[in-house]
Amino acid sequence: MPLTINPPGKKIEQGDPARIMILEEAINFLKNNPPFHLLEEPVLKDVARSLSMEFYPRGSVILKQDGPPSEAVRIIKKGSVKILMRTEGEMDSVIDFRGEGDSFGFVSLVAGDRQKTTVIAADDSVCYILGRDRALRLIEANPAVAEFFMSHLTRFVDRTFEEMRGRRLSYSGTDRLLFTTPAGDIAKEVITVSEDTTIQEAARVMTAHSISSLIILNGSNVPAGIVTDRDLRKVVANARSLTEPVKYIMSISLIRVDAGDSCFEAIMKMIRYNIHHMLVIKDGELKGIITNHDLLLLQGTSPLSFVTDIEKQKTVEGLAPVCAKMNNIIGLLIQEGAKAGSVTGIITEINDRLLKKVIEIAEEEFGHPPVPYCFIVFGSEGRKEQTFKTDQDNAVIYADTSSAVAKEEAKRYFGALTVFINDSLAQTGFPSCPADFMANNPKWCQPLGSWKDYFEKWITRPMPDAVLKSLIFFDMRPVYGKFSLCDELRSFYFQLLAKNKIFLGHMANMIVRNSPPIGFFKSFVVEKSGEHKNEFDLKLRGVMPLNDIVRLFALESGVKLTTTLDRISALKARHPVVREYHDEIVHVFELIMMLRMHCQYEQIKEGRSPGNFINPDRLSNLEKKSVREAFHLISKLQGMVVEMYKPLIV
Predict the structure, then answer these.
(1) How far apart are CA 27 and CA 43, in angstroms?
(2) Could you report the per-residue pLDDT of 204-229, keeping only the tens digit for each?
């Protein structure tokens, strides 16, 4: 049972100094974590006063699948939880990990229905508890908060897709080791020393056992921290005394994984917490330890080692060979049967870290920026839906300044900075955008005021070229710098959209012209001649029409999210079409994204550049049926768009 830190019914409120400190800590925590950072100060403080806290020992079942609905939204203050789901009598499968600042329990709380998943404390965890009544009042009064929570609804792929993946797309001959090997099977023996052991003796123990980490035990023989090779290097670099107790240099945070959890789950936790060693626990006791090196040996490479390689590079030249391995990482995940969302999630994490590293190198080269700026991405990267490497789609928004000198300095600085960044990304394997939608194009490297002028012109005077350009930037996502610049621009154009509905009609008119490649009798419409004879473009005719429809509905409904699946999830409660066809839309998107990635992977294995054209004759009968039904749904949705926007479509 969880330990209630605050007495039942007693809220965090001002009083004695200890209570005041708890309240201030809660306020600061909420300020730094979405969606509470969106709240105005008085509301934020009121929410903080209504909180209580609970402690969950590792392994505690917090919510049980098929159990009663949650009576609170829980926000993780310390620790982490894992979310599991059981389907049709099968074993529980881990579908998500959530850590500090994340929340859970919202869906069943709002629906009032039985709990759809099991939530277990993956570590000793402390959660803030926001009661049902206060949570409902909060989302009713704050649409942005409601939007955030709705975007995190659980999404499922139906059995048709699973059968398809199992029949053909899950390549035979692959051991799927990362997904099937329990972490306990590769865990090594844990070597421990007491916290009073000297640094020198600890180093001797590590050398004697040829290990890269050492677990430190406190006076009760309970793991209290970890010391790694990196910690010892810092000792030498800082000329610390080797006679100091090792407890003074240990890392206190000990992230753990269950022995029965898969190695893939261990990798995801390592990436999330940016660690390289993880304790393995079995039946509540310490079983062993695994490292990034162990996971690398399991199948020759791992996403974690890739991210680590990026982080330690100091030059663009050093990044280039690291990035050359990117296709191997994606191919590994595809071969092991990962879902499209899992693959694109890791690709996004890796690409974002690569981009941030390039920008950090650029700032070291050109110095501190004269004004704050935000580096944004758009297109598939903005939607977090990149597959194998695609070209660059990025821009810069920098802060306005009234000084003529400052304006000129900013123009000069960002002009040079963006040329370096785009050239560096090209050097690491991301080609330039053929249409020149890149930050080094002065048109797309502008102060916030200029960006607002762009959107005002596009939305209030929706000529075809203006609609096309705005479509590209409606998927913008901040990656580096001052994110509030991007947020302000997004809020600005949403306000314009609310006043200029005719723009949505022009957008609808444009997107319905790109129809899926399916004929009247559900036969595939393919190219009749040329390089791609008997093929169709799965991205242009499949992915993009669905992206366009979902984006249109999101803009109409005020949904500011950019990822297609997140938009679909948020729209379920806001848009009648998505409400009715939610599960089908999610299924179709996952299906065509996964088919696209597998086809690209086959092309790479055959020594060809990955593309988006596919020959339907190479699909199995089941795949053909599934793809036909997917295209039929997209066509049906386009028909609904025509009916809905008929008064506005010209």
Answers:
(1) 10
(2) 998 888 787 888 888 887 788 888 87
Lowest mean pLDDT among 151-160, 286-295, 641-650: 151-160
Identity at 122, one-letter amino acid code: A
Residue type present at position 3 = L
Domain ranges within the chain, ordered by starting residue: 3-154, 178-303, 369-499, 506-644
- Rounded to two decimals, the pTM is 0.59
Question: What pLDDT shows up at residue 160?
Answer: 30
Task: Determine the average pLDDT of the residues in 47-75.
Answer: 91
Contacts of residues 19-28 at CB distance under 8 Å and 24 or more positions apart, as own/partner, are: 23/48, 23/49, 26/51, 26/128
DSSP 546: H
Place of tokens 């001959």: 173
Same fold, 178-303 and 369-499: no
Q: State the residue for tokens 């300095």.
A: 409
Strand partners, 374: 397, 481
Q: Which fold has domain 3-154?
A: Jelly Rolls (2.60.120)
Kindly state the DSSP code that residue 143 receives in the 8-state scheme. H
The pLDDT value given to residue 460: 93
Task: Give dist(CA 430, CA 279) in Å, integer.
Answer: 37
- The 10s digit of each residue's pLDDT in 3-38 is 444 444 455 544 567 777 888 889 999 988 888 888
CA-nearest of 74, 79, 51, 78 to 63 is 74
CA–CA separation, 590 vs 470, rounded Å?
26
CA angle 325, 331, 335 (to 5 degrees): 150
Domain 369-499, CATH number (from 3.30.460.10, 3.40.50.10800, 3.30.2130.30, 2.40.37.10): 3.30.460.10
Could you write out the DSSP letters of every residue in 14-67?
Answer: S-SHHHHHHHHHHHHHHHTSTTGGGS-HHHHHHHHHT-EEEEE-TT-EEE-TTS
| Sheet with strand 61-63: strands edge to edge | 61-63, 118-121, 81-85, 93-98
Residues 586, 202: Cα–Cα separation, whole Å: 53
Distances from the Cα of 260 to the Cα of 39, 79, 182, 284, 588, angstroms = 40, 19, 5, 12, 32
Domain at 178-303: CATH code: 3.10.580.10
